[in-house]
């Protein structure tokens, strides 16, 4: 069974993902993003792409799902550019898995 992929963030940043066949969910507030992520997790989404700008405002929600196998929450830059948060998360996860920063 293939997992569904969702994208959560501001409208301008996520609309292009619709072309790729992903489900897109515009969220303009941290509360709305939190609610959307919880709903998607309950609907068996395997991957949720989330803009870094919104992720920075809901670190508690991100941390809660980091402890679970699914959904995987992957941070992406918004249309204004990267905050570096997604790259830092990848570096931290690689360092945890390998024991050192190889990136």
Give a structural overview.
It is a single chain. The protein has helices spanning 11-19, 30-42, 52-55, 59-66, 85-98; strands at residues 4-9, 23-26, 45-51, 72-76. The protein is of the alpha/beta class and 103 residues long. The chain has a single domain (4-98), classed as ATPase, V1 complex, subunit F (Rossmann fold, 3-Layer(aba) Sandwich), CATH 3.40.50.10580. It has a four-stranded parallel β-sheet with strand order 2-1-3-4, with helices on both faces. α1 (11-19) links the parallel β1 (4-9) and β2. It is globular and about 30 Å long. The model has no long low-confidence stretch (mean pLDDT 82).
Which characteristics define this entry?
alpha/beta; globular; Rossmann fold; 5 helices; 103 residues; 47% helix; single chain; 4 strands
Short description:
The chain is an alpha/beta fold and 103 residues long. The chain has five helices and four strands; from the N terminus they run βαβαβααβα. It has one domain: ATPase, V1 complex, subunit F (Rossmann fold, 3-Layer(aba) Sandwich), CATH 3.40.50.
